[in-house]
Amino acid sequence: xxxxxxxxxxxxxxxGDGETANAATHPREPTWSVVEHGWNPQRANYFETIFTVxxxxxxxxxxxxxxxxxxxxGTFIAGVYDAYDSPVIDLVNAxxxxxxxxxxxxxxxxxxxxxxxxxxxxxxxRSGVLHRDTxxxxxxxxxxxxxxxxFASTADRDLCCLRIEVTCLDHAGAVTVRTGIDGNRRNLERxxxxxxxxxxxxxxxxxxxxxxxxxxxxxxxxDGAVGVLESRTIDSGLDLAFALTCSxxxxxxxxxxxxxxxxxxxxxxxxxxxxxxxxxxxGLATSRDHLAVRPERERALDTVARAxxxxxxxxxxxxxxxRQWVDADCSVVGDDxxxxxxxxxxxxxxxxxxxxxxxxxxxxxxxxxxxxRGHVFWDTEVMLLPFxxxxxxxxxxxxxxxxxxxxxxxxEVAADNGTGGARxxxxxxxxGREECPRYTPDGKERFYxxxxxxxxxxxxxxxxxxxxxxxxxxxxxxxxxAEILFETARFWVQRCTEDGDSLVLRTVMGPDEFHSHVDNNxxxxxxxxxxxxxxxxVYERMSRERRERLHDxxxxxxxxxxxxxxxxxxxxxLRAPTDxxxxxxxxxxxYFDRTVVPIVDWDAHGMPRxxxxxxxxxxxxxxxxxxxxxxxxxxxxxxEYSMATRRLNYExxxxxxxxxxxxxxxxxxxxxxxxxxxxxxxRYFERSAFVDLDDNQGNTEEGIHIASxxxxxxxxxxxxxxxxxxADGLRFTPALPGSWQRLRFSVHWRGRPVRxxxxxRDARFELLGAGPPVRIIxxxxxxxxxxxxVVEVAAP
Length: 796
Known about the structure:
Layout: E1 4-8, E2 33-37, H1 44-50, E3 53-54, E4 58-60, E5 75-82, E6 90-93, E7 100-104, E8 107-108, E9 115-124, E10 129-137, E11 143-152, E12 159-168, E13 173-182, E14 187-190, E15 210-212, E16 215-223, E17 226-233, E18 239-248, E19 252-258, E20 261-270, E21 275-286, H2 296-307, H3 310-328, E22 330-333, H4 336-350, H5 379-391, H6 393-405, H7 407-416, H8 449-452, H9 456-471, H10 474-495, E23 497-499, E24 502-504, H11 522-545, H12 547-557, H13 563-573, H14 630-636, H15 643-654, H16 664-674, H17 678-689, H18 706-720, E25 723-726, E26 729-732, E27 742-749, E28 752-758, E29 762-767, E30 774-778, E31 781-785, E32 790-794
Parallel strand pairs: 26-30
Antiparallel strand pairs: 1-32, 2-9, 3-4, 4-5, 5-6, 7-8, 7-13, 9-10, 10-11, 11-12, 12-21, 13-20, 14-15, 16-17, 17-18, 18-21, 19-20, 22-27, 23-24, 25-26, 27-28, 28-29, 29-32, 30-31
Pfam families: Glyco_hydro_65C, Glyco_hydro_65m, Glyco_hydro_65N
Active site: 513
Domain Glycoside hydrolase family 65 C-terminal: 724-785
């Protein structure tokens, strides 16, 4: 039976479940917030991570304004790195713009000095605002309420805002509010080696780490009522300026500065039930800001001046978030908890990327913590980029811009390893040079990823081709994209070695980091084969369509006209599993000879436990996998293999995978759905969706698993929603879990959003924006979308 579809006027459409089409405007509150009820110091670091506020320019962890023993606060500015006093470069823990203290009748309101009677915090995912409401008990039975709001503005990414309100609930009292900017910040450096099984309580565990210093103060003073703190990174020499304005009605104001901080104090005499308020605006500027030419101090001062007031800034921030959610929202009718998890993931993705700065990228913990030192991995291209590509194309373009910005560093990495062309670092920061540490933080185990995990270079090529295919942005493809593709193809040709009639890649590491020093990793070889052919194809297109641009590029990088043919020849000779009916693909030479160690134990979250006597660093001789390797290959290049081959390999490797990377469950969910294993796919989806909300890996306190957030979105849209975008256009093959009634999201295709409202037996689509009709394929049948007209399609 063929699919049937009809067109309707969107103005007359009913939503069926009472929810309007624009859920961001009329939200259901539980799905748009994450809430902390009560104060538990043992969970404080967890909430610091998930309550991170940010805007892609910076991220600030959700620590209490007044801090507590065991707090791990942090503000991280994209692109601000420093290597002073540390073995590898760090994303700098920047000056603390939240620094505050509140006193009532001389008693400091904090979780240790006063009794916590009530405590509630709520992160509003719609607007990126963190709300706090704490009632403290005072000596003699009196009570005081502390309320705060904070956000990093998405309307003006140089602006941060904090509102503090204090109420003496049942007595008259003297209230002091001190708030400022503290430049005395450190980064965690290294955890010394202690006896096995040594554990430290939440109050002291961060004290046990050695610390790194990256900032020195170069000025702190007030000009009138506006304060400015200026700092400089010690090794990289970046200048940072923070400007502060602070307002309060009816109080007495005092301001002070020290060499590494500025602060304002407000003193109020408060009657019973009376509330006092202090609003704080902070402007930020750095010397590395993209396209900035004026001094940092001037730009920071301009930011707080143009912000006006807290309320004006809050309204602008909310409007900017509403615009983002129109394209980014993804919701499930019939499962509010999954909808909350999806929106939580999307929120953290949106605060991780800055579409206005093509010189920065997203680290493995985004801007929410010090995990992985803020370094950029392959996660950005294979996990994060699809979300931005289909919902925020400008941000996707900026993320790819980072790779071109750091291309000189990639050329240096290639040269350092004895080849020409460009090889992207496994871990990069501001320059593109290799920043991967050689040892674990405690110094006990050696990493070989910096030397051997080469596939990132092909992963970046993959992202470039995907971006061009979805957006149709040939100007990018034939410009920065082509330069990266050509330079990296040169690297691969020289990195391959002769082996009889074949070319091979020796001493590499695939995505599965349990196995190092392997030859002919199937994932790497196949991606390199694909990469070389794509680079040659782009060269051929440019020779037909952009000859002048190609001539200029060849001249700038010294490309010989014979080289592209050599890329194709190398691809044809490279040993790679290309037979679509090859059966089980051997992950690398000799993998089938490794000892089979069955997985027999799972934790409370359904995550596999390593077998007794094994650790992540002694699985080399086993068949156990850290994360998908061949299965990742099937995910990225599904059309290269028959369904029978994909199903066979999924079943073989799924039972050997430990999922010790947070990106692992989502990839297994997507591939599981493609091969018909929906039950297992739904289980993996839940692992991915709740990795941070449920802290199911036990390390959320170190920062958000941002790759898992992006993977969760991919499972929903590309897995259950059945989205595919390729040379044939945009396709949908929905297959929703039985408990879901409908799945709603938008995707951008060739510069125009398509809204999808998918059910089990029907689907609705709407093309937005001016332009010609667009043909999509739904359940295998072509459907034509006219702008502004809802099309309803029945399942076959």
